[in-house]
Amino acid sequence: MKTGPLFSGDVVIAGGGMAGLSLAIALHRAGLSVAVADAMALEAGLAPEFDGRASALAYTSWRLLESIGVARHMKDNVQRIEDILVVDGRPHDGLKPGGPGRGELHFDRREIHPGETGEPLGWMAENRWTRVALARTAEETGLPVFAPARVERMSREGPRARLHLEDGGVLDGAVVIACDGKFSRLREQAGIRTVGREYAQKGLVTTVAHELPHEGVAYEFFMPAGPFAILPLTGNRSSLVWTEKAKAADALEAMDADGFQEALEARFSDFLGRLTPQGPRWTYPLGLKIAERFVDDRLALVGDAARAIHPIAGQGFNLGLRDAAALAEVLVDAKRAGLDLGSPGVLQGYERWRKADSALLGIGTDFFNLFFSNDHASLRAVRGLGLSIVDRIPPARKFFMRQAGGETGDLPTLLKGEALRI
């Protein structure tokens, strides 16, 4: 007896990571019929040891999470970012306790969001808590999630697209959205090429407790081997993103506790007091990869499937959420107008909205990583001068803060904190 698809509706999403689930929930709440398929059961991604990273959520990203009902599950586990200090040099190179060093650039959220309770520059959230919040919201809203269910391929038949699962199941929709990461299978099967390169760097990620309060300040130190970021978490804790040459990063990950403590204290310095590493260490290879096209026949790329960039600006997940906000608005508008959601005209509208921003940010992070990841004396002098000049020009500081916050260009409805409805 012939059976039909496991799901038939408007949209099918391959990939239930943070960007994929955010998009799915947004579409589901807006009134579209949507389903998600992921190779891993949702609960498997909630364990502390699954993902040690933390994400700096831009204030527009937080607005999106609030508007789709996810942020309320995160409020007890997020930290406001009140200030960002960018320093060209090591933490102990002229750094005063709790303050910047030589060649610094200081971003203060009060310049763009005045008042004691004004909107912060962003929020720091450990990825595991974001995943918990997304999973809870998906369950509450009744979002159809097929997991574990590994995607094998996509096919097209007239005005419909089908996602074929390895177990033989089929999910049917007017459009398929690839949220399956930087090694996206669907992108490769569609013949969409990528441009970019691998860096000879890895990012070591871990959490450290410190004696003194961070006061909501995020630090970005530019070191010869790559950026060293100290990002505030709840309590007297910070997330470290420690960029090193690949072999050095692997050695740091493999060190015993005493060896890592010594290396950490040498790099971190003591401006936040006594340090205590917490939890495991992870390393991630770093590179730049941007898809030449964000859309194909009844297919759209979102998040890392569309582009993966250096974490130097903390924009990875934020870019995925900006993709989600733009694509959700395009699809909701199309549904409201009675258009074919997978038609070239609809999907190309999404590509035009997101591709230029992605390319500019990818090129920008690539340039900054190359320009700052060295110890050339003349370049250090130029860098320090440039940071100091920008620090003295309020309109420039405000521009960069709004740029990092995602509040430039044509802002999608969800990034304004407003709900989408058909």
From TrEMBL:
The keyword GTP-binding is annotated on this UniProt entry: no
FAD-binding domain sequence ranges: 10-336
Cofactors demanded by this protein: FAD
Single biological process term from Gene Ontology: ubiquinone biosynthetic process
Biological or metabolic pathway of the protein: Cofactor biosynthesis; ubiquinone biosynthesis
InterPro entries: FAD-bd (IPR002938), FAD/NAD-bd_sf (IPR036188), Ubi_Hdrlase_CS (IPR018168), UbiH/COQ6 (IPR010971), UbiH/COQ6_monooxygenase (IPR051205)
GO molecular function annotation: FAD binding; monooxygenase activity; oxidoreductase activity, acting on paired donors, with incorporation or reduction of molecular oxygen
Keyword entries, A-Z: FAD, Flavoprotein, Monooxygenase, Oxidoreductase
Superkingdom field: Bacteria
Cellular component terms per the entry's GO annotation: ubiquinone biosynthesis complex
Family: Belongs to the UbiH/COQ6 family.
Protein name: FAD-binding protein
Organism, as annotated: Marinicauda algicola
